[in-house]
Each structure stands twice: as structure tokens, then as C-alpha cells.
Amino acid sequence: CRILAIETSCDETSVAVVDDGRKVLVNQVSSQIETHRQFGGVVPEVASRKHVESITRIIESSLGEAGLGLRDMDAIAVTQGPGLIGALLIGVVAAKTLALAAGKPLIAVHHIAGHIYANQLVQPLAYPALALVVSGGHTELVLLERPGRFRIIGQTRDDAVGEAYDKVARALGFPYPGGPHVDRLAVESAQTVPLPRAWLEPDSYDFSFSGLKSAVLAVLNTAKMKGEAVDPAALARGFQESVIDVLVEKSMRAVKAFGAKQLLLCGGVAANKGLRSALSARCEAEGVPLAIPPHALCTDNAAMIGAAAYLKFQTGEFAGLDMVADPGLSLEAWSVE
Ligand code: ATP
Ligand code: MG
Ligand code: FE
């Protein structure tokens, strides 16, 4: 089964061709980061216009790179949501047009299912699996009892991890997206500014990061008022340690409680070096198999959408041409039948 997949949920225009939800034939990504950087974050209206400008060209160049035509595809898949409505619409319209013109079935994909199934592009998954989703808009622990069955057992009650990283980075004077800068800075000091950890109720798998972000801002503001200097690296390190402690601890507790055979790390923040190494060390010590996609498959890309789309291809759950982009699409409701 060969699927052409399209992803336009945020600020990356991407087109991929994936075989059997496992093998990537091509995965082209055009990032708009340079355009949005001058505004300090993604501007939805600008994102939509950029997607319109690039989508046709990327579809053509991806098929060209793979040496394939639309007739070689078994289905056309596209991110239905969540994401920015104007951005999602461009991908959805493009996918419907291709499906109609080539007479191929259409598959609507959940963006976070894509982030999770990016792991399947590297190795087969073992079920039950537990996914730790850490991205710009999401922080969730998702239990997969079997392929394509998603159960959210915990999620952030306020900011997503990536969002907290970006806000802290901005306060430290770094450009958007700031996560990688904080990650790099965190290892540049031997000192740590101690910051709080939000464990919430003892049995909760939920997260909270806005208090931690506020604590970082409070340290900076207090120092400014007193005319004192703050070591930005020690502050970045304190922030990163608090984030990682909670993510690792709750993930390991959930793996045990639900008998997961594998832990899947995914989403843009999975690129974080501190998180990768802390989670790897804990999983190794406790004998839990850990999967982390390579960097290019952690951030937004269409190959992961092609991987998740294969779940619905197998069950024959195709979308009609009346399918609409849904910024609030539910992951659990997207589960296969
Ligand atoms: P969602 O998938 O929830 O819709 P998104 O697609 O915008 O959100 P991704 O593209 O998956 O999010 O991830 C982008 C986020 O990852 C940004 O917040 C960015 O700062 C963060 N990020 C990237 N690299 C790192 C890193 N090394 N350390 C921390 N955060 C990082
Ligand atoms: Mg992005
Ligand atoms: Fe994403």
C-alpha cells in the first residue's frame, strides 16, 4: 500500500510518500520558521498564505524525487487537525483535489497520531505501548492498547512543554523557536537555579508547566529590580531539570501501571538532548524499551501522517470529499474501529 501524505497544520508545508506505514520513499519539508521569526511566533494568516504558495510545488517535487505519479498511489492522506484552521484548510483542499482528480480514496489523519506513529517509520511497535507526546501545542501521555487505539491518560492543564520552552527562551532573549537554545544553554553552566516541580495529585498523570515558566520569569524580574545579574545558563538548567524530572517520572510510573511493553517519545520537544538522555538512562536502568524517532521525524513532517494513515487504510475508514479541517479534532475519537 502506497500513500501520498500532506501535512500543513502549522508552519511546515510537507509532502511524503510512505509504503505500508513503514517505509519512507520521500519526505519533503518546507519550513516557514524564517518568515515567522521576525514576529516572535507563528502568525496564522501568514502561515496560510505560505502554505498556498508552496503546496503545489512541493507535491510536484516530491513525486518527482520519488519518480512516481499520482496513479501509483493507493490513497491520499492529509492532516485533518488539530492545528491552525487556515493552515489545515490548505492541505485538506489540496488532498481532496488530488483524490478527486486521480480517483483515489482520501484518509483524514490526526496530527498527534502522526507524531506517535513516526516511531513506526523506525521500527515495529510493541503493544501495549505508552507514548509521551511533547510538542509545541501538546503534552500528553497516550496509552495504545493495540494499533490505532488511543487513550489519553494524562495531559497538560495549562502550557504545553514546547510552549513553556519558547516562552522561557523569549524571556532569555532568544528568537523563535527557542526550545533548542534553552536546551543548548542548559549544559553551559555547572550551577542550577532551583525551581519548583508541579507533581499535582499523587495519582495524576497530568502536567502543568505555566507555574514553572512564571517562576523563571519571577527570577529574572526580581534580579532586574535588585540590579543583580542572573546566570542565564544556570536558569536554563534549572528550568530544564524541572521539566525533565516530571516528564520522566510520570512516564515511568505510567509504563509500570499500564504494563506497557514500549515507551514512545515523540513531538518536536523529543529533539531535546537533556530529555532524550534522561529518559534513555531511566529506561535502560529499568529495562523498558524506548523508541525515539530521528530529529527530522520528531518535528512536523508528512511521513508521520502517512504512517498513521495506514491504520485507517487497513480498516477501510476513508473520508468523504465533504471532510472538513477540524482544529479541535479528538485523538481518542480518531481511534480505529
Ligand atoms: P503540535 O504538534 O502540538 O501541533 P507543533 O507541531 O507546533 O505543535 P512541533 O513542531 O512538534 O510542535 O514542535 C515544535 C516545538 O518543539 C517548539 O516549541 C520548539 O521550541 C520545541 N523544540 C524543538 N527542539 C527543542 C529542543 N531541543 N528542546 C526543547 N524544545 C524544543
Ligand atoms: Mg512546527
Ligand atoms: Fe506537531
TrEMBL record:
It is an enzyme of class 2 (transferase). InterPro entries: ATPase_NBD (IPR043129), Gcp-like_dom (IPR000905), KAE1/TsaD (IPR017861), TsaD (IPR022450). Its EC number is 2.3.1.234. Its main location: cytoplasm. Substrate binds at V133, V134, S135, G136, G137, D166, G179, D183, N272. The keyword Transcription does not apply. Pfam families: TsaD. CDD domains: ASKHA_NBD_TsaD_bac (cd24133). Keywords: Acyltransferase, Cytoplasm, Iron, Metal-binding, Transferase, tRNA processing. Its cofactor is Fe(2+). The keyword Transport does not apply. HAMAP family: TsaD. Required for the formation of a threonylcarbamoyl group on adenosine at position 37 (t(6)A37) in tRNAs that read codons beginning with adenine. Is involved in the transfer of the threonylcarbamoyl moiety of threonylcarbamoyl-AMP (TC-AMP) to the N6 group of A37, together with TsaE and TsaB. TsaD likely plays a direct catalytic role in this reaction. Belongs to the KAE1 / TsaD family. This is tRNA N6-adenosine threonylcarbamoyltransferase. It comes from Paenibacillus gansuensis.
